[in-house]
TrEMBL record:
Organism: Marivita lacus
InterPro entries, per database record: Endoribo_LPSP/chorism_mut-like (IPR013813), RutC-like_sf (IPR035959)
Protein name: Endoribonuclease L-PSP/chorismate mutase-like domain-containing protein
Organism lineage: Bacteria, Pseudomonadati, Pseudomonadota, Alphaproteobacteria, Rhodobacterales
Residue intervals of the Endoribonuclease L-PSP/chorismate mutase-like domain: 6-140
Gene3D superfamilies for this protein: RutC-like (3.30.1330.40)
Length: 153
């Protein structure tokens, strides 16, 4: 990882966790050519998994905070795929799944937590295409799950 990216993380008061191990029978990422497909990452904060349902016991701001932790896990996987050098990585697309009630409509605000972090950390290489969709439930009752596609530069 370059000094500039490390400095940005430090300015934001963040550190990248170790790349999380998969929770079932899949791999955390697959590289094909210059593309890296990262499996869905769950929000693990300082106190463990961030659980809850948006529109019920969590609001959009709490969901965005959970999405930020998903983004940190995504970056950890991308860093591992890039041999430890995030300066070689560009975010292509994020897909965010938001555990939300049927009447909750702020999924984009929730996934902004991940999108904002990518741009804040990687600058222009963090800008990406994106989807933000509702899910009736997610593994372990987490608030959000985000998968990503990255490109090695």
């Amino acid at each position: 990882m370059t000094d500039a990216i490390e400095a940005r993380l430090a300015e934001l008061g963040l550190t990248l966790p170790d790349a999380p191990a998969p929770a079932a029978n899949y791999v955390p990422f697959v590289q094909t050519g210059a593309q890296i497909y990262v499996s869905g990452q769950l929000p693990t904060g300082p106190d463990g998994l961030i659980k809850g349902k948006l529109g019920d016991d969590l609001d959009a701001q709490a969901g965005a905070e959970a999405a930020k932790y998903c983004a940190l896990a995504l970056l950890s996987q991308a860093r591992k795929a890039a041999g430890g050098d995030l300066s070689r990585v560009r975010v292509v697309k994020l897909v965010g799944f938001v555990n939300s009630t049927a009447d909750f409509g702020d999924q984009p605000k929730v996934v902004n937590g991940a999108s904002d972090l990518m741009v804040n950390v990687l600058g222009e290489n963090g800008r990406h295409a994106r989807s933000a969709v509702s899910a009736a439930s997610l593994p372990f009752g987490v608030a959000v799950e985000i998968e990503g596609i990255f490109e090695l530069l």
